[in-house]
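Following up on my earlier message about zinc ion. Here are the inputs again, as you asked, copied directly from the submission form:
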Amino acid sequence: MSQLPNCPQCGSEYTYEDRGLFVCPECGHEWSEAQSVEQESGLVVKDANGNLLQDGDSVTVIKDLKVKGASGPIKQGTKVKNIRLVEGDHNIDCKIDGFGAMSLKSEFVKKN
Ligand SMILES: [Zn+2]
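Thanks, got it. Here's what our run produced:
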């Protein structure tokens, strides 16, 4: 079974297939498979175990991470919900309780 792509318009993961088109229930966008392959060739982000990560995934931090300006590190085992993948060295945008908006490196997390 092939995995459905996220909506290229709003990034929703709750897409489904309907008569050869992909449909996004959140913004109503419809698109064909050919387009989605193009979209998907962009960003490939893998966790510490080599699993592919997607927008909206939940991950766990696998080592203590120092944070500039914070009183303590982000502890190993911290759960992070609803990540967003971005380009660059720190390729995960997320919010962590007690720290606020953060950028993490995908090599320091694993998919839940
Ligand atoms: Zn959408």
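One observation from looking it over: The pocket of zinc ion is lined by residues 7, 9-10, 12, 24, 26-27, 29 (CB under 6 Å). Hope that helps, and feel free to reply on this thread.
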